[in-house]
Write a structure and sequence with these properties.
The structure holds two protein chains of two kinds. Chain A has a single domain, classed as Up-down Bundle (Cytochrome C Oxidase, Chain A). Chain A is built from 16 helices and no strands. In chain A, helix 2 packs antiparallel against helix 15, helix 3 packs antiparallel against helix 7 and helix 13 packs antiparallel against helix 14. The longest helix of chain A has 37 residues. The radius of gyration of chain A is 24 Å and the shape is globular. In chain B, the strands form three sheets. Chain B has a five-stranded mixed sheet with strand order 3-2-1-5-8, with helices on one face. In chain B, strands 4-10-9-6-7 form a five-stranded mixed sheet. In chain B, strands 11-12 form a two-stranded antiparallel sheet. Chain B contains six helices and twelve strands. Classes of the chains: A mainly alpha, B alpha+beta. Chains A and B meet through helix 3, helix 5, helix 8, helix 9 and helix 10 of A and helix 1, helix 2, strand 7 and strand 9 of B.
Chain lengths: 559, 329
């Protein structure tokens, strides 16, 4: 590898520009704020992971014997709440997005640096409420907070947890707002919309969902708290309310929230695929608009979570058909990434391994989405482990693979150090194997009829559950290894050059780590996205070319 | 339609094989798509692996034809799956005209069943094989979900309303009944059995229990105990409307709206009498919320059904009136 430079002259960059706790806690540098978020989300990832360990240990045996039912219910609830609100939603946008959006568009910072810092404090405040709720004993409603269980019957800390999620939502809104304004107003001269990296397109789409969707969950949680405290009677049927209304409101945000989690990961994958094959993304505009299409259609499909909740049959059909509509742009992205590989210069570095893993998981996660959108099949698999497996394929197999791939890819830019490549490839493999072993058996369990959120289960489900728990322990190791070598590399990793991957994009045109104001002077963009080769040499490919190319090397006359 | 699918529960209802067929198709489709894409990716990854550090890929613009192809083909395919899935769903949630009715009340953490002939069961439901069974479900507390994997049916049971579902068992045996909607501490303990029996066995089971008389007769007793009959008198002299012949018939309200009197309407009229006041009457009826349990409400419903419009002898097990049920409520 040509990546490591032996001697680096001492130089001022964003990490060593100032020192001291205050310089971090009062920073308005988007890169430092990204690192604050990195520390926070990493903490919550391992906290949520700890709950997952408890869940998988309990499910090793059919009988409830590891913890009490009440404890188990609190564990899966806190696993969901922590992972979704405090890890998956902020992970890529608030860490990688915060770090990279200004760098990728050639700006000095985000449009509102102080609001950016504020959003980290809001996140931390919300997180503090939730941690406090956990310390007080947690909550047992499931992360979905369905009424009337959450509003009347649960004896957990529903309101406190809800307040945590409510507050954190505002940090999401502010981040989205910041990104949208930044992308609109602060692009470097010459950086037109269609020259933007696809990471920016996907973050733009994500930001739209954040600012349009998050207020709805805020209102929903507020109504839930009011219902629980003063019994306003909006969800309680005894007071004339409708408990299913809560589900509509909840999923109106929480389904698009799935796209808040996965769209940024798709952005990362587009960067990885383009830069690790050193060519432009096949069908750039289609991939870019697919992000927007997903963001828009994502708002119209919430009812597919309510196929068995006594909503009208006809509403079910409308939501089913719209769910299929959102599947198309997702498929388009996968096909375009695959086509990008054609005639590329494909590297097998760790980031690319994560990209391969992402595509594989996303195919399974996406295809099983078709099962769930099929009304007749959903009736059977709804609220079973099939759903659990499906959304873990999307969120863990998708978002976390994208996040880890991105962390490896931009690690030299963030820290100025390389991570140990051999260990990283090994960890990627462990994650891939562990993940499949954990979650694939859950599809089978679901179709066999094992409902989710079961503390004890009939014996016929044990074998698959043991497989899943075994996989989870492998997966856990797969996540610990990068944690260890990343920390190691911050001190001992070889120094990274400005562009260790030979990648394309403005973030690689400044030093690693970048100076506080990102660029020595504002770049002027005269090139297209991922323009590894001059544009004149661009060719339009046809299916026939691909087939000719594929079939030519085969020996003639072998029959 | 008995396609065996690995890792699937028993196929024990008329619906199971049909769900498995679509599921099987989707599995094959997923397998094909997964394998083809994986092979293409692996092939490209090997063939176009980076050979020297400074190598770059061949720039390729894209292809409109390919983009259209891989947008339109998946779209058409998914529309096909939609139609297939939706037609199953429609069948499943449209209650059949003629069915054996059972009333179900869920509560934390048990399933209570009431048969029209008066048998009551907890966490165990006996039904005959080969008959359409229609369940009317409600809950005393939180949302539960009635899930029988072997029948491939599931429906949430929502407080404050009646949900209807049906199935036709095709195989005798004992099948799991699960609660599929998280409902609190013992959610995973809210499980039971559906006992599907041969017709003759079922008849002898029926004649075994039922000390208290039919559901409708319990309802009639309750109707008198609660003094409903002081206002709802059959001689048209009462302050409330005559209830004979009301069930299954259109009712007109003060505000001019009309509605076919069904189970939900009766329930609502007992719990919140002033929500819909029959034309020509005063809103004077007090609420019975908190005074009658969900089970008693069902008994009252069964009684009013038995004196309803179209089925005078409704206390038998064939009590389903021939009205077209709304697809799902």
């Amino acid at each position: 590898m040509e990546i490591a430079e032996k001697v680096i002259p001492p130089r001022t960059h964003y990490l060593n520009a100032t020192y001291g706790v205050k310089s971090w806690l009062l920073t308005t540098d988007h890169k430092r704020i990204a690192l604050l978020y990195l520390a926070s989300v990493t903490f919550f990832f391992f906290l949520g992971g700890l709950f997952a360990v408890g869940i998988r240990l309990e499910l090793l045996t059919p009988k409830g014997d590891f913890v009490q039912a009440e404890t188990y219910n609190r564990m899966f609830t806190m696993h969901g709440v922590v992972m979704i609100f405090f890890f998956l939603i902020p992970a890529i946008p608030a860490v990688l997005g915060n770090f990279l959006v200004p760098l990728m568009i050639g700006a000095k910072d985000l449009a509102f640096p102080r609001i950016n810092l504020l959003s980290w404090y809001i996140y931390t405040l919300g997180a503090a409420f939730t941690v406090f709720a956990i310390i007080l004993g947690g909550v047992d409603t499931g992360w979905t907070f369905y009424t009337p269980y959450s509003s009347t019957y649960s004896n957990g800390n529903v309101v406190l947890t809800g307040v945590g999620a409510f507050i954190t939502g505002f940090s999401s809104i502010l981040t989205g707002l910041n990104f949208i304004v930044t992308i609109h107003t602060m692009r470097a001269p010459g950086l037109t919309w269609f020259r933007l990296p696809l990471f920016i397109w996907s973050h733009y789409a994500t930001s739209l969902i954040m600012i349009l969707g998050t207020p709805v969950i805020a209102v929903t949680l507020l109504l839930l708290a009011l219902e629980r405290i003063v019994h306003i009677g909006i969800f309680d049927p005894a007071l004339g309310g409708d408990p299913v209304l809560f589900q509509h409101l909840f999923w109106f945000y929480s389904h698009p929230a799935v796209y808040i989690m996965v769209l940024p990961a798709m952005g990362v994958i587009s960067e990885l695929v383009a830069n690790m094959t050193r060519k432009n993304i096949f069908g750039y505009k289609f991939v870019a608009f697919a992000s927007l299409a997903i963001a828009v259609f994502g708002f119209l499909v919430w009812g597919h979570h309510l196929f068995v909740s006594t909503q009208s049959v006809y509403a079910g059909m409308v939501f089913s058909i719209l769910s299929y509509a959102v599947a198309v742009p997702s498929a388009v992205k996968v096909f375009n990434w695959t086509a990008t590989l054609y005639k590329g210069s494909i590297s097998y570095n760790t980031p690319m391994l994560y990209a391969f893993g992402f595509i594989g998981f996303f195919i399974i996660g996406g295809m099983t989405g078709l099962f769930l959108a099929a009304l007749g099949v959903d009736v059977h698999v709804h609220d079973t482990y099939f759903v659990v497996a499906h959304f873990h394929y999307i969120m863990v197999g998708g978002t976390i693979m994208g996040y880890l791939g991105g962390m490896h890819y931009w690690w030299p830019k963030i820290t100025g150090r390389m991570y140990p490549e051999a260990w990283a490839r090994f960890a990627a493999l462990v994650v891939f194997v562990g993940f499949n072993l954990t979650f694939f058996p859950q599809f089978l369990l679901g179709y066999m009829g094992m409902p989710r959120r079961y503390y004890a289960y009939p014996e016929e489900f044990q074998v698959l559950n043991v497989m899943s728990s075994a996989g989870a322990s492998i997966l856990g190791i797969g996540y610990l290894i990068p944690m260890i070598y990343f920390i190691w590399s911050m001190r001992y990793g070889p120094h990274a050059s400005a562009n260790p991957w030979g990648a394309f994009g403005l973030e690689w045109k400044t030093s690693s780590p970048p100076p506080t104001l990102n660029f020595e002077k504002t770049p002027v963009v005269t090139w297209e996205a991922y323009e590894f080769t001059p544009r004149e040499e661009m060719v339009v490919v046809s299916v026939r070319d691909v087939l000719d190319e594929t079939l030519r090397p085969r020996p003639v006359g072998s029959e | 339609m008995q396609v065996p699918v690995p890792f699937s529960p028993d196929q024990a209802s008329s619906y199971s094989g049909q769900v498995d067929a679509l599921y099987g198709f989707l599995c094959v489709l997923t397998f094909v798509v997964g394998v083809v894409l994986s092979l293409v990716i692996i092939y490209f990854a090997i063939k176009y692996r980076r050979r020297e550090e400074t190598e770059v890929g061949k720039p390729i613009e894209g292809s409109m034809k390919l983009e259209l192809a891989w947008s339109i083909i998946p779209f058409c395919l998914s529309m096909g799956i939609f139609v297939w899935g939706a037609s199953l769903y429609y069948k499943m949630y449209r209650a059949p005209g003629e069915a054996l009715e059972v009333y179900v009340v869920a509560k934390q953490w048990m399933w209570k069943f009431q048969h029209l002939d008066g048998q009551r069961e907890i966490n165990e439901l006996h039904v005959p094989v080969g008959r359409k069974i229609k369940l009317m479900l409600t809950t005393e507390d939180v949302i539960h979900s009635f899930f029988v994997p072997a029948f491939r049916v599931k429906l949430d049971v929502v407080p404050g309303k009646y949900s209807t579902m049906w199935f036709e068992p095709t195989k005798a045996g004992r099948f799991h009944l699960f609660c599929a909607e998280y409902c609190g501490t013992s959610h995973s303990g809210m499980i039971g059995w559906i006992d599907v029996m041969e017709a003759a066995e079922y008849q002898s089971w029926l004649s075994g229990g039922a000390a208290e008389g039919s559901l409708a007769s319990s309802g009639e007793k309750l109707f008198q105990q609660l003094a409903c009959n002081t206002c709802h008198r059959s001689d048209a002299q009462g302050r409330g409307p005559v209830l004979e012949g009301v069930f299954g018939k259109e009712v007109q309200f003060q505000d001019g709206q009309r509605l076919i009197a069904d189970e939900s309407y009766i329930r609502e009229s007992i719990i919140t009498p002033r929500a819909k006041v029959v034309a020509g009457f005063q809103p004077i009826m007090p609420t019975f919320q908190g005074q009658v349990s969900e089970e008693q409400l069902l008994q009252l419903v069964a009684y009013l059904k038995s004196i309803g419009a179209k089925s005078p002898g409704a206390a038998s097990t064939n009590a389903q009136p021939a009205k077209p049920a709304p697809p799902q409520q």
